[in-house]
Amino acid sequence: MSERVILEVCVDTPAGLVAAIRGGADRIELCSSLALQGLTPAPGLIAQAAAAPIPIYPMIRPRQGDFRYAEHDLDAMRRDIDAVRTAGLAGVVLGASKASGALDEGALTMLVRHAEGLGVTLHRAIDLTPDPAEALETAIGLGFERILTSGGALNAMAGAERIAAFVEQAAGRIAILAGGGVNPANVAELVARTGVREVHSSGSGPATEGLAAGHEERALHLGFVPTGLRDTDEAVVARLAGVVRGL
Length: 247
What we know:
This protein has helices at 14-23, 43-49, 71-87, 105-114, 132-142, 160-170, 187-194, 216-221, 234-245, and strands at 6-11, 27-30, 56-58, 91-94, 119-122, 146-149, 175-179, 198-201, 204-206, 230-232. By secondary structure, it is of the alpha/beta class. The protein has an eight-stranded parallel β-sheet with strand order 3-2-1-8-7-6-5-4. Strands 9-10 form a two-stranded antiparallel sheet.
């Protein structure tokens, strides 16, 4: 377990990757489509991340929607894990569920074994489980190094009681990474209420790139630029890092 609180920032663009590193992130969850809660990043972004000076954990999630995966999904996930290993990145983030919401031990056993030599984080599939305490023990048995969770709530502050219970139950056997709505204004309270030593945030602000400058109206009309576009913001990450390093 870390002595100081670790800040993980999730990013889904080249600019976001740069902003997170410059802002002081300790680790990056690399994704595409954060608006869909994160999908597997593209090869180009993975290649860019290979030069980063901090650990990079790409999301291994081949499609939007639930975490129930057919064999063709699992095949894609294995291939994506191979690509991460080839790129020389530190680890992967993944999860798989049964129809009940319980962790799919069969699929996860295969995926974790396939990721041998890489760090492995269990993502928020754990927030769907009907028995979170049992799921935590399953994750430990499968060999995950950490669990990303909002405590089964819409955000980590709302799920703080469950996250604290995870920390107590884990007792140092696995790291608990609190994520969901984490920002500079609430991260200190979240850490105090839960006891986590790792926090996860998008560190986002209004996007400054990709806004179709000069032809915004048409780009919006055709759906190329969504309203409220956001991206990782170096200043927000720096504020988060400053608070976290003081804890």
